[in-house]
């Protein structure tokens, strides 16, 4: 287990993304691209089935005051996102208790070490928990139900709250 974790940790650190935060293109518009709440991408109502294209688009995704957009040095195109742009679909961990480190993997290949800069938050939606992890620069991933159940299994109850630790930070998953 430790070798798989270390490989994911290295992959998380090695991934180079375009500097979308530095690009301020003059040409701004909209494009009929939508990211559904389950992480599927659609263009003009048709699902984009080429995963490599989705992964490429995800690298130029940015969240601005006017919403989510795909950004290049020459163009910024606003898109629609139903919930979060990514979904955390897998999890690995190393160590136990307060020494534990969690890595979540998204549907677009991001590996996120859960820590103070990449926290897990749980929102309540009509009595149902909606767990998220901060991926990068205001972009977050909805944590898939199966991954959330694994997090709950790792959790410990303290003062009526279910908590999990990662990278020295405490994250509350909910009340019990």
Task: Give a written overview of the molecule.
With 176 residues, the protein is α+β, with helices and mostly antiparallel strands. It is built from 3 helices and 15 strands. The protein has a 6-stranded mixed sheet with strand order 3-2-1-6-5-4. A hairpin with a 2-residue loop joins strand 11 and strand 12. It is globular, with a radius of gyration of 17 Å.
Describe this protein with a few key phrases.
176 residues, alpha+beta, six-stranded mixed sheet, globular
In short:
By secondary structure, the protein is of the alpha+beta class.
- Given as residue ranges, the uncertain stretches (5+ residues, pLDDT < 50) are none
Going by helix content, strand content and strand pairing, the class is: alpha+beta
Termini Cα gap: 30 Å
Q: Describe the strand arrangement of the main beta sheet, using strand numbers.
A: 3-2-1-6-5-4
Count of DSSP-assigned helices: 3
Percent strand equals: over 45%
Which descriptor suits the 3D outline? globular
